[in-house]
Structure prediction request, 325 residues.
Amino acid sequence: MRAVRCQEYGPAEKLVVADVPAPQPGASDVLIQVKAAGVNFPDTLIIQNQYQIKPPLPFIPGNEVAGVVQAVGDKVSRFKPGDKVMGFAFVGAFAEQIAVPEASCFPMPETLSFEQAAAFTMIYGTSYYALNQRGRLQAGETLLVLGASGGVGLAAVELGKLMGATVIAAGGNPEKLAVCKERGADHLVNYSEADWKDQVKQLTGGNGADVIYDAVGGDYTQTALRCINWNGRLLVVGFASGEIPALPANLMLLKSSSVVGVFWGNSIAREPEANRDNFQQLFQWAMAGQLSPYVCASFPLEQVADAMNLLLQRRSVGKVVLTTE
Ligand SMILES: NC(=O)c1ccc[n+]([C@@H]2O[C@H](COP(=O)([O-])OP(=O)(O)OC[C@H]3O[C@@H](n4cnc5c(N)ncnc54)[C@H](OP(=O)(O)O)[C@@H]3O)[C@@H](O)[C@H]2O)c1
Prediction:
């Protein structure tokens, strides 16, 4: 089968597309013929050896797919060849085939295309875990999303609305922010403008946001903590700016606010019931037509570098996917 291989750490241009042996499904695995695979920011970090978990070289990057079941192991009961499915793995998705454990496989909602289904798991899994379990976002509260036009950010905007919050989408580019408005954001704030903190204060009647979803880090985080409400929760989701912020503790003291870490990938194994419940709700919304990933571009496997560079150069909106045909 054809697959994208990371043979040495470095920029996306170092990735190669090679013919490699197809994976053999274990007894509890589902072998998927991949139609599309989602590209996520962590993929761009893993290939550069900058991610917290480091697979041994060589490896096939990518962690989410949508496709058709080709074969199943003896112990698999929920799927059969021919089923349309979505699958999730740590690596191995940028390939024509992938074997994933049955537990990491879901039936594909009919409302989604293969591209949308391949873009679903990471962004909604992360953002719903962040807002629901970690942020305890309540209907009627105000949610501020930093990096709102990105993959996980746009998912947070959509989920914030479904959870009944007033959503302020913050980003650096008016065209990208316009998509956040289309996807339900109540207010837009451009954080390349010096007074963006005051704009958030003004939009919240001087109080600040109850929950801040931060996928960007750097200086943005400290500024955001200066426009958080009393008892507010700042969710540490990612550092797309490339900078891990240091936060003065007095800012938390002044607002009785909390800074809350979010690591969805690890939560799946540690809190499997919560993750299952979350996905049940996410699929309900998807099947009701209330949730579908915004895919801005799709590329063949051979153009994996172009796909990753869209994210790294801040040019993507929502999700980018790779396709195998
Ligand atoms: N904690 C978890 O469980 C978890 C799960 C998934 C992802 N993440 C993390 O979440 C972050 C976002 O991931 P994603 O897949 O949503 O990425 P993405 O689609 O590339 O979105 C990132 C957003 O950050 C903003 N940004 C600000 N400075 C940037 C810079 N220097 N380079 C690139 N983007 C910049 C961009 O919006 P503007 O141009 O509008 O500023 C962009 O839309 C990453 O750090 C990722 O590792 C965490």
Q: What stands out?
A: The longest strand covers residues 29-39. The radius of gyration is 20 Å.
